[in-house]
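Extended Data, record Lactate/malate dehydrogenase C-terminal domain-containing protein
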Amino acid sequence: MGVTMLDDAEVMSHNPREVVVPVVGGHAIVTILPLLSQVKPPCSFTQKEIEYLTDRMENGGIEVVKAKAGAAVKSADACLKGLRGNANIVECAFVATHVTELPFFASKVRLGGCGVNEVYRLGPLNEYERMALEKAKKELEGVLRKVLALCRSKDS
């Protein structure tokens, strides 16, 4: 399970620990897709705020690395709770999935005693997210093609 969550709640004026933004796609700039339309607690953003937050999550550099340190603890805690059998542990993870036509995609998942129990569909996306999803899929497709070819060559 990769760390796909970020603590970035300043625009929402909330404690980052209370905010959940599903981050799907991949782990590199254009492939990172924060689903701000699905943020909890629900919040509406201006187009400028959407672009600002998306850019921060894609290009945050050191800031993102620092933010992900807290997310790593939250991610590990969620894994452990799921493995202990706690129900309704939902996080985002880069997994084998049929959410898109790609073989792997960071998606919302429900964790359980054996790992990932369920992979959720993307849910409703706004126009900005649909366009970003297409860019992310295109970039991820190329990366996955190279990685899978490398894996196949090592297997032979």
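Summary. The chain has one domain: 6-155.
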